[in-house]
Amino acid sequence: MEISFHEHKLILDGRRALFMPERRWLLFADAHWGKTHFFQKHGLSVGHGVFQADLKRLKNLIDDYRPEMVLCLGDLIHHEEALNHKLKEAISEFRQKNPVPMALIRGNHERYIPELPLSWGIDIIESHLKRDGLFLCHEKESFTGPQIYGHLHPKMSLKAQGDHVSLPCFYRNGDDLVLPAFSEFCGGVNIDLQPQKNQQAYLCLEEQGIDGPHTEVICIP
Amino acid sequence: MADDNALFTQTWLESKGWQAHSFQKEAWQSYDKGEHRLIHLSTGFGKTYAAILRALDHLAAQKRASQEKRPSGVKILYLSPLRALGNDLKTNIELPIKDLNLPLKVATRTGDTSTTERARLKERPPDILITTPESLNLMLTSDRFREYFEHLECLVVDEWHELMASKRGVQVQLALQHLLSLAPRCRVTGLSATLGNPHEAAKALVGPKNPITVISGPVKREFDVECLRPDSLDGFPWAGHLGLIMVEKVTELMDPNSTTLYFTNTRSQAERWYSELKESLGDEAHLIGLHHSSIERQAREDIEKGLKEGTLPYVVCTSSLDLGVDFPKVDRVFQIGSAKSISRFLQRAGRSQHRPGGIPTITFVPTHALELFEFMAVQRAIERGHQEKIDVPKSCFDVLIQHIQTLALAEGLDEEQAYQEIVATTTFEELTRDQFQQAIEFLTTGGCLKSYDSYQKLKEFKGRHYLANKEVVRTHRLNMGTITSDPVITVQYVRGSRLGTVEENFVSKLKKGSVFNFAGKTLKYVMLKDLKLYVKKASANEAITPVWQGGKLPLSDLLTFELRDLLEDLSRGELKHDLLALLAPVIQAQERLSVFPKKDELLVETCETREGHHTFLYPFAGRLVHEGLAALMSMRLSKKLKETFSFSVNEYGLEILGPSGLVLTESDLRQALGPQNLLVDMEKSLGSSGLAKRQFKEIAQVSGLVPQNQMGKRRTLKNLQSSTSLLFDVFERYEAKNLLYQQSLQEVKVYQFQEERMKNTLKRLEESHLIYRLTPYPGPLGFPLVIERMAATVSGNSLKERIEKLKKAYQAQSS
């Protein structure tokens, strides 16, 4: 879905990522790579299936948009202990196959990670970027001006007539835009939408079709 | 072996002026023969002494003969499900020991025992140890458990009727087989309240291969069962569960000279009743106490002490007082709302007049009109001597993998020996070697290799399995047990004492300054810090009461049967009961709109309201079965009609709510209940209705997938948290073969869905004559279902269609 954000065109993709067509940048946040590795290390039996699905979704996004840069707005890695050789290998392989320039804005989950493995070719940006009047950061900062960030894992739940659906969403709050968590293995915070205060939610909807998953963005209200 | 002259303890019992009962003598003889036995009887007849007096004789004789000074391990192990009970048991057991000056030491070890005391007990094992299943399991992980228990002679499992149906009971079964293989001479004694199936209960205790004798105590007791009647049913609710309308009637009967227990079904109901009754007492408010499992232990013990000494005449409680020591001073018991099972009703009745010869008196307090029918059904069942059977859980994978880790921790797990012990239990009787191997595999590699490269809980070393590393060891020790709960927050005063615990869920609904009722007090939220909610005393009229999850017991299968039987008689006009006059307005209202179904009839009522089109079915099969039926029907209907349905259930029936104007025809319903593709459809409805997700929560906690306790590792813990519901979604999508996920589906089928009960019900319904009534509004049977909160939704629409609908509803609401 294409929206206009402070006179910039932005494309919100139901695969939980954002594309800036003017710069050809692909943005996503809160991928929490290595969460399953970290769980397993601590004896919790969760397989890597969900992690692999996340990677595949990122690859499809890269293939579809052909971005000049991929930028993660923080919390790319779940925990410093998750950075074991299995994860390092898996990502190195992914980067070899998808050699697009990539950078990370440091999030709170990366605060004890001095740098990422060299073979990944992912630069760390310490605090934020400012491009075309937009601040790109991990969580809300005290800048004056429109901000795009992640961290919150926004979700929205809709209820009526006995039916109930809860989905991750992009959350437009006045001047700011919050990205949904990219990883499927992430909980979320339900937002209490107040449309009268210039707030909107863009729900990321994914359904299995005959020819694979089909995604869509639906704007509320 | 002691000879017949050595019956010190029986002589002692008689010297106290207590006549030894014949079942006690029977139990002692059976002990002499070296048998395992299950003693079942109504409470209040000295079963503790039946279990251990002979063992004391043997033990004392041995000790005297051997002259040995060094303690050589525990000889009598007494397992009680309640840690609070330890001290009372200790006093009881020490009584003959002191009087007869026997050279025996008694000790208790529970979760409350201090670390120094534990260390002392580890060094010098007592002759007699009283403990809980959880503490026993912890002891099994100790490096010295072998020398500690290898001379065990007598193992007593108290309150087996309460344990056997639960995963705690499964844990006891496993520990028991482990102890038996360590100490083959050990005799097992199970103690239980009266049961519908004592022989099965006995088998469940010692496993299918060990012979066991069943000893019945005096069972038939007279009960004084009565019902507190509202003056009229005008204005008496058709639904609800609090029953506060009856407070005045109950207060009229309060008498400070007799001790009374008020049993409620939930903690929040107890809180409400306590505050109402307390208010009615005015200046004498100190005469009433509140007892439930979320109240601080010290406060609970004070209440129990007051009951024992007779200084506290009124106590409002929940199932927290179902078990445990006898309170001889209790004269009268009130049961507020349905007790849900005949056994529980009788057990609670038995809490009154606990001295031998006293006639238990129980007064039922209805909370809504339909419960009066239930009361009549209970009363008839008691007259007919009917009681529930208790079933043992089958193949609990989560408890199994916990047990495997326990064995691996102590001295390494030997596969062959562990397997033999495990299949000796009733729960795992049918576990194949392959399945056992799968469980080991699951802990070693995660089961499906590729996706589990960072996972390992067990390691093999010289043919035995050990826990992989220190962290696994610590996490396992901290998270053992099968009692699960939602995260809890401690409630305490800003300066000083703790009051108890509430669920995180409840606290999240509060704000600073919110006023709420808890532990019988009105409190104000001051601050939330480090999982502690700091409060101040407050006074307010509008305070909310916390609601705790769980604890919603379903109506027993037997009681549903009795209820259908009663309704049959009612609809034939053959029911005689003096409550019928009172119930006349409800009966007439139902008969005006519709009918009361006979046993071979299925009543269907439909009506249209602003919410949509309601279809009510009344199989009278209990909440769990109705939940399963409703999920199945909604799934089938939504698929066929491409619509979204939601459903709600109660003990008597179920409601399916669809869009306005969508009338479900008789043939729609027949198809939705039909036998075609039943198994496949049941499986599907598990997933689509979200029922399996709820069950998964418990399994995830017991198996350690969601650690409950990781002391001292705050940040790590935080990063290991994931909601069980998220995990469930991830498994459903990416790892449907995960064994824990599979178990949750299995458990929902067996326990939640009650597969067997459901199949029986479906068969019954198939043969039933369908009575279809269009009503202008919901009647006395339907109304409670309308106000019940919706249980779940099943949709035949695509997600997008649903969201478009929800979006419209949202827009309509907010504009």
Annotate the secondary structure layout.
The complex is a heterodimer of chains A (221) and B (815).
Chain A: E1 2-5, E2 8-13, E3 17-20, E4 25-28, H1 35-41, H2 49-65, E5 69-72, H3 85-97, E6 102-105, E7 122-125, E8 129-131, E9 134-136, E10 147-149, E11 154-160, E12 163-173, E13 176-178, E14 189-190, E15 199-209, E16 212-220
Parallel strand pairs in A: 4-5, 5-6, 6-7, 9-10, 10-13, 11-14
Antiparallel strand pairs in A: 1-2, 2-3, 3-4, 8-9, 11-12, 12-13, 12-15, 15-16
Chain B: H1 8-15, H2 22-32, E1 36-40, H3 47-66, E2 76-79, H4 86-99, E3 106-109, H5 115-123, E4 128-131, H6 133-140, H7 145-149, E5 154-157, H8 160-163, H9 167-182, E6 187-192, H10 198-206, E7 212-216, E8 224-227, H11 247-252, E9 259-263, H12 267-281, E10 288-291, H13 297-309, E11 314-317, E12 330-336, H14 342-349, E13 361-365, H15 370-384, H16 397-411, H17 415-423, H18 433-445, E14 458-461, E15 464-467, H19 470-478, E16 488-493, E17 498-503, H20 504-507, E18 515-518, E19 521-529, E20 532-537, H21 557-571, H22 580-593, E21 601-609, E22 612-618, H23 623-641, E23 644-649, E24 654-658, H24 666-672, H25 678-689, H26 691-702, H27 714-720, H28 724-734, H29 739-752, H30 755-767, E25 769-774, H31 783-787, E26 792-795, H32 799-814
Parallel strand pairs in B: 1-6, 1-7, 2-4, 2-5, 3-4, 5-6, 8-13, 9-11, 9-12, 10-11, 12-13, 16-20, 21-25
Antiparallel strand pairs in B: 14-15, 16-17, 18-19, 19-20, 21-22, 22-24, 23-24, 23-26
Helix pairs in contact in B: 2-3, 3-4, 6-9, 15-21, 23-24, 23-25, 23-30, 26-28, 26-29
Shape of chain B: globular
Q: Any low-confidence stretches of chain A, pLDDT <50, length ≥5?
A: none
- SS summary, helix count of chain B: 32
**Largest interface, per-chain counts?**
A-B, 44 and 59 residues
CATH architectural arrangement of chain A: 4-Layer Sandwich
Mean pLDDT level of chain B: 83
